[in-house]
Write a structure and sequence with these properties.
Length: about 130
């Protein structure tokens, strides 16, 4: 009985710990063919189209500045990322294109909403402008 009295608080604290600490999101693995994919669009051209597409499709979750603080962000379970960080910006265009295209978890797939690959590449170009100075 003494052992049970000692274990009960430990079990309770362990339960609390796991209840309030969500597990880290698993790493987002991008297929090699996308990692090395080259962006076929010119970032200096059509940036306003990329901005408009971002505003329509991405801003509600990722926020105006890409901080992951859009009005729908609180409803999402995973990490929305911060597009302004050097870590985020160090990804290749192909990695960003893959994530933008195919999504995972709360991030929806956009190949049906935006079937034209060029539109998703233009969003990648716009996300590149969000680097923190």
């Amino acid at each position: 009985m003494k052992t049970m009295k000692k274990l009960l608080p430990i079990a309770f604290l362990t339960l609390l710990f796991f209840a309030f600490n969500s597990p880290p999101q698993e790493e987002w693995v991008v297929p090699e063919e996308y990692v090395n994919m080259k962006n076929p669009t010119d970032p200096a051209v059509d940036l306003n189209i990329g901005k408009a597409l971002y505003k329509k499709h991405c801003q509600s979750c990722h926020g105006k500045e890409g901080y992951g603080d859009g009005p729908k962000a609180a409803d999402q379970k995973g990490d929305l990322g911060d597009f302004s960080t050097a870590e985020y910006q160090s990804q290749t265009d192909g990695e960003l294109f893959y994530k933008t295209s195919f999504g995972r978890d709360d991030m929806p797939e956009y190949t049906k909403k935006m079937p034209d690959d060029e539109d998703r590449w233009l969003i990648v170009n716009y996300m590149r402008t969000m680097l923190e100075e």
